[in-house]
Amino acid sequence: MTALLETRDLAMRFGGLTAVEKFCCSIEKGELFGLIGPNGAGKTTVFNMLTGVYKPSEGEIVLDGTPTTGLAPADISARGVSRTFQNIRLFDELSVLENVMAGAHQHAKINLLDALLRTGRYRREEESQREQAMRLLDFVGLGDRAGLPARALAYGHRRKLEIARALATQPRLLCLDEPGAGMNHAEKLELSALIRRIRDELGITILLIEHDMKLVMGLCERIQVLDHGQTICCGAPAEVQCNDAVIEAYLGAGESGRKKTADH
Ligand SMILES: Nc1ncnc2c1ncn2[C@@H]1O[C@H](COP(=O)(O)OP(=O)(O)OP(=O)(O)O)[C@@H](O)[C@H]1O
Ligand SMILES: [Mg+2]
């Protein structure tokens, strides 16, 4: 297997605070890889560096052999990295379908003039985006809700819509930031099956941040654990689960380390 994503000694500092330090990971093509750790460990900061939201203070990011360190979010997205957000970001007044089409928009092969004049090329492009968005909605199980405004969706469905929108950019690497946050047990089971299908049927490599240990352990092939910005363990779920440093980090963090507070 070849590494799709490699990071070397990534660090992110905010003034005097080091949010992430010496972050090294290597994610293989087709892997389902977990990133866990107590609240404030630096997980979302890693995503923000990988997707160009933050420029790393140190280190290097290499995507399929090509450095992407410091590139703008749109350039990184165009190279095949897509994400969902810990706090859901949808266009509430747009329809479910339009939200997915908005995700695909940046890959459109049309220019402004085509759009203004609504040329044949523009209409064909829009039609093909619509069809692709419908296929993605069917894939995540929201096909029958395509015409509703996004605000009308139940919470668990909003999370799935975010995933469909992230898929619309046709990523090679999909970064999911706590997709199960706020979901009930049944919704989490569905989510887990969906993530597996994204990898198995669409062949997309997955990097998953998730606080629900059962979900992460049942889904991921390898897991890297952060605590206070440092990697304390990386390995198979069974290894991670009984690692002393990991147990210590979660016990030290207390309940707040395992519970999600940011979303509700
Ligand atoms: N833009 C920023 N400016 C200053 N500090 C930041 C910024 N972003 C993150 N931090 C800090 O970096 C640390 C890591 O935050 P991060 O959001 O990456 O943690 P996390 O592991 O995603 O936590 P959670 O599980 O609560 O989502 C925290 O101390 C946070 O306050
Ligand atoms: Mg976070």
Account of the protein in words:
The strands form two sheets. The protein has a six-stranded mixed β-sheet, with helices on both faces. The radius of gyration is 19 Å and the shape is globular. It has ten helices and ten strands. With 264 residues, the chain is α/β, with parallel strands linked by helices. It starts with a strand and ends in an 11-residue tail after the last helix. Helix content is 39%, strand content 23%. Mean pLDDT is 91; it is low at 255-264. It folds into two domains: 1-80 and 176-264, Rossmann fold (3-Layer(aba) Sandwich), CATH 3.40.50.300; 87-170, Rossmann fold.
The assigned structural class equals alpha/beta
CATH architecture of the largest domain: 3-Layer(aba) Sandwich
Whole-number radius of gyration?
19 Å
Into which percent range does the helicity of residues fall? Answer: 25-40%
CATH class of the largest domain: Alpha Beta
Q: What is the assigned CATH homologous superfamily of the largest domain?
A: P-loop containing nucleotide triphosphate hydrolases
β-sheet strand percentage: 15-25%
Tell me the number of structural domains: 2
In whole angstroms, the N-to-C terminal distance is: 40 Å
Task: Characterize the biggest β-sheet.
Answer: 6 strands, mixed
Could you say which small molecules are bound to this protein? Answer: adenosine-5'-triphosphate, magnesium ion
